[in-house]
Amino acid sequence: MNKLLMTTLVAAGFAAAAPLAIAQASPPASGQGQHAQHGQRGHHAEHGKKAFRMPGERVEARLAYMKTALKITDAQSPQWDAYAGVMRKQAKEADARIQAHREQRAANSERRRLTAIERLELRQQFMAQASERIGERLAAQKPLYAALSPEQQQIADRLFAGRGGKHGGRGGRHGGHGRA
Length: 180
What we know:
The chain is mainly alpha-helical. It has helices at 2-25, 33-46, 55-70, 77-107, 116-147, 150-159.
């Protein structure tokens, strides 16, 4: 089963990377620069290859993948439904935060630089909200994890790791800072 899951994940990774490799290999049309790239993205969107731009757009696909990979049974459905509900709610809230931020930036024409204190206060606020979201997710994830078989728990350990899995859910080059 692990071999099948790994094969599926590798195939999905190649499928996701192929358009990026093609886009990187082909130079933009001369004289058009970034306008050509925006046009190409619009062209792909018309053909159903639009990338997810908001968390709410990808939550259902992610939940469907996870439910299939975990092979959730009827007996595990109540715990799964509670977890999925939290994920949907948090994705909707993330969409609202992103939209509010975009509107705020568009309305703020002067865009003055924040002071060091203001930046720290914003970071503190962000971290407090992120901690609340983690607590909410943990409260739904613990009963689900406890209801899983040992084999399902091994899969869950990878799936629940977050973005990328190997960096503890966040991290990479930027050290874990950014949107939650």
